[in-house]
Amino acid sequence: EEEHVWRYHKHDMQPHQCGSILLKHINAPVHLVWSLVRRFDQPQNYKRFIQSCKVEGDGTVGTIRDVNVISGLPATTSTERLEILDDEQHIFSYKILGGDHRLKNYWSIITLQPEVLDSRPGTLAIESYVVDVAEGNTKEETCSFVETVINCNLKSLADISERLALQEDTKRLTL
Ligand code: A8S
């Protein structure tokens, strides 16, 4: 089953594109992490660069969202489409269709796998992406920008999930 999940992260990459795979170990059970990842309509719940999000559609595959990013970034808006939402296998994927920013043909996929961390239920989050190399920039520059954003997102996903996990544990103790 693990191999099955890795298969999703093998992107077809063309010469004018770049991409990679990022991992994050999270000290929280999969169902908590997934509850944040799966909300295509509310990426701002854990993505700190997103200010607001408007959705057209019912949240199923094909749904489109318009996000506004916070000020101070080389971007203002992005239009994105939900590609995969698999509640059983915990696979989430979206594509960037357009917007006022420099990431063309961006495609990303996140998978979550249960793992045991310090003998407690944990999650391995894997996020991979491909994107066109931005005009006037090198592969390295484009990738390092994207990776900075993704690493911030994964860090914040971990922080929030771990806080939720602690709250669940506390509730169980006081009942
Ligand atoms: C994500 C990943 C990325 C988001 C990028 C790479 C973006 O939202 C930001 C700045 C940009 O220049 C492009 O899953 C864009 O959030 C923060 C607006 C798309």
Extract low-pLDDT stretches.
Answer: none
Structural class: alpha+beta
What is the H/E string?
HEHEEEEEEH
Name the bound molecules: ligand A8S
Percent in strands:
35-45%
- Secondary structure: number of strands: 7
Radius of gyration (Å): 17 Å
Strand order of the largest sheet: 1-7-6-5-4-3-2
Write down the overall geometry.
globular
Describe the structure.
By secondary structure, this protein is α+β, with helices and mostly antiparallel strands. The chain contains three helices and seven strands. It has helices spanning 2-7, 30-37, 139-174, and strands spanning 17-26, 50-56, 64-69, 77-86, 91-98, 107-117, 120-132. Strands 1-7-6-5-4-3-2 form a seven-stranded antiparallel β-sheet. Strand 3 (64-69) and strand 4 (77-86) form a beta hairpin. Helix 2 (30-37) packs across helix 3. The mean pLDDT is 94.
In short:
The protein is of the alpha+beta class.
Q: Helix and strand layout, with pairings?
A:
Layout: H1 2-7, E1 17-26, H2 30-37, E2 50-56, E3 64-69, E4 77-86, E5 91-98, E6 107-117, E7 120-132, H3 139-174
Antiparallel strand pairs: 1-7, 2-3, 3-4, 4-5, 5-6, 6-7
Helix pairs in contact: 2-3
The chain binds ligand A8S.
Ligand A8S binds next to helix 3.
